[in-house]
Amino acid sequence: MLELATTLQGQTIQNRVREVGINPNHWYAVAWAHDLKAEKILSVRIWNQPIALFRDSQNQVQAVENVCPHKGVAMDKGKVQGDTIACGYHGWEFNGQGDCVGIPYWNEGQKLPCAQMRSYPVQEKYGLIWLFPGDRTLSELETPPNIPEYDDPKCLMIPIGAEFKAHFSICNENTMDVFHGYLHQNLQGWFDPVLLKLRETEHAVTAEYQVSYKGVLTKLLGLSESGGMTTKIISVDYQYPNYINKLEGVSSLYLMRLPISETESRSFAMMFLRLPIPVWLLTPLRRTLQPVILHLLFLPFLHQDIEMIESEQENYLKDPQRRYVEVNPAIIAVQRLIVKQFDRYRKTLQ
Asked: What is the pTM of this model?
C-alpha cells in the first residue's frame, strides 16, 4: 500500500482515461435481481457486449450473449422454454451454456449444427445479478464485494439505481470527489471538506475526508439533535470496479458501477443507514421509510450529480484534445487506477 500526499495542487488531466475500456476480469453488477422475472428475458449490456439473462426451471440465473448464432437476431426477442432460451425468429433453442439443443424443424435423430453462443459466469447475491464478462477461468478467483450490512436488522437499506450518459471514469471521479459539496448547498449537504489521507494499491484507491454537516440532514441522520454543526470522517474506497464509502458511525454506501459503453454507465447502489430507531420499530417501518428517504433525501442529490456528470461528458466530446486541470490528488489516483486496470487486461491478450 502506497501512502500519497494529500496536498491540493494543479495537475493536468490525461484525457486518455476518457477513452479506456474496462478490465472485464471482475464481477460486475448488471441488474437488480427482482427485475429478472421467471420465463422472461432481460437484456443488459456491459462495455458494448449485449447479454441476455434468463431464469431456468430451477430459478437459477443464466447469461448468454444476446445474439443468435443463426441469423444474428437479439435473443431477448424470443422466449424462455424450461431450461432453454428460444430465438423468436426460427425457434432455435439454446441452454445456459450457449449450446444449440433444438431446432423445431430439424429431422429427429440428425446431428444438430455446431451453433453456439457465448455464455457467462453469473450469480445472484445481495439482491443483484452479478456477471463476469472476462476470462471465465478467472471467475472463481474473484468475488463480488462483501456487504455484511445486507442482513443486519439494525440497518435500513435504501436501494438507489441511476443511469448516466457518460463514460464510467467521469462517474467514478464524481463518487471520489467529496470536494463537490458546493453543488449541493441548497440541499444542506456537507461542507468544509478536508482530504486527510490517501492510499493506493494495485486494485484500490482509498481516501479519508473530514466533512461538516448542519441543519435538517444532521437531525435525520442522528448526527445532532439540534441541527447544529457536526464534523465527521468519511472514507471513500474505490475497489475497482466498485465503491465502498462509509460515514463515521452513520452509514455505508456500496456503489456498483456498470460501464455500458464509451458514453453510457449505470450504477446499482445500496445505502445502509443506522438511524436512531430501535429494531422493533424499524422493522415494520422499513417499507414506508425506504421510498420516503429515497425521494426526499437521496434522489435530489443524485439528480444534481447526473446533470454535472453528463455536462462534463458532453463538453469532452466537443473537444477531446482540450486539457483540464485537477487539484484533488484522489481524482488523479482514481484515473491512474482505471488506466492501470485496462492496461493490465490488455497485456493478458498479447
From this structure: 0.94
